[in-house]
Automatic annotation (TrEMBL):
<dbReference type="Pfam" id="PF01478">
    <property type="entry name" value="Peptidase_A24"/>
</dbReference>
<keyword id="KW-0378">Hydrolase</keyword>
<keyword id="KW-0808">Transferase</keyword>
<keyword id="KW-0489">Methyltransferase</keyword>
<protein>
    <submittedName>
        <fullName>Prepilin peptidase</fullName>
        <ecNumber>2.1.1.-</ecNumber>
        <ecNumber>3.4.23.43</ecNumber>
    </submittedName>
</protein>
<comment type="similarity">
    <text>Belongs to the peptidase A24 family.</text>
</comment>
<dbReference type="InterPro" id="IPR000045">
    <property type="entry name" value="Prepilin_IV_endopep_pep"/>
</dbReference>
<dbReference type="GO" id="GO:0008168">
    <property type="term" value="F:methyltransferase activity"/>
</dbReference>
<dbReference type="GO" id="GO:0032259">
    <property type="term" value="P:methylation"/>
</dbReference>
<feature type="domain" description="Prepilin type IV endopeptidase peptidase">
    <location>
        <begin position="56"/>
        <end position="162"/>
    </location>
</feature>
<dbReference type="InterPro" id="IPR014032">
    <property type="entry name" value="Peptidase_A24A_bac"/>
</dbReference>
<dbReference type="GO" id="GO:0004190">
    <property type="term" value="F:aspartic-type endopeptidase activity"/>
</dbReference>
<dbReference type="GO" id="GO:0016020">
    <property type="term" value="C:membrane"/>
</dbReference>
Length: 188
């Protein structure tokens, strides 16, 4: 119950943060608070205590990024760039292997950058900027998590595409959703 209430509060604060950003997103607080509370509760039920800061951070950051991407069609630099040090601190506190995290960061970032260079309309710049931080988490979970999360992210994006206009399909929700799922149900 305490984790759910904390997630609710974090979601409310996140909604305020989104509105306060220079190029923020006007997302009502329930759209951030309810998913954050639910994801924090789920993570607390299945994640080892030492690893818990990682899925909690991903849930909070992921809900804010997904809300901004769905509402405004972009992932704000004010969230994607600070994700790198935030993820580094969370992984360090969880005792993750720094070499694997760095490797995952570089591989996932390079893959997304290559896709962006080959087909600019396939991914936005924010997706590429965010991919390195998410890749660090995936690399810390396992090397196999990188291609699995990429496939799950694509599947989530395809599901969103069913109800989304043809132009400006957001990939951010799929990226953060797949990474969160992998971080929670990773190989413990």
């Amino acid at each position: 119950m305490l984790v759910a209430l904390s997630g609710l509060g974090a979601g409310v604060l996140g909604s305020r943060l989104l509105r306060a950003l220079p190029r923020g997103a006007d997302v009502r607080w329930p759209w951030c608070a309810a998913p954050t509370a639910a994801l924090w509760s789920a993570a607390a039920l299945v994640s080892p205590p030492r690893w818990l800061p990682v899925p909690l951070l991903l849930a909070w950051l992921g809900v804010l990024l997904a809300a901004a991407d769905l509402r405004c069609g972009r992932l704000p630099d004010a969230l994607t760039l600070p994700a790198y040090p935030a993820v580094a601190v969370a992984l360090w506190s969880a005792g993750a292997d720094p070499g694997r995290a760095l490797g995952g960061c570089l591989v996932f970032l390079a893959a997304h950058l290559a896709v962006r260079r080959l087909r600019r309309s396939a991914l936005g710049g924010g997706d590429v900027k965010l991919s390195g931080a998410l890749g660090a988490v995936l690399g810390a979970v396992s090397w196999q998590a990188l291609p699995v999360a990429a496939a799950v992210a694509s599947a989530i994006t395809l599901v969103v595409a069913v109800r989304w206009p043809a132009d400006g399909l957001p990939h951010g929700p799929g990226l953060v959703g797949a990474t969160w799922l992998t971080s929670v149900w990773g190989p413990w």
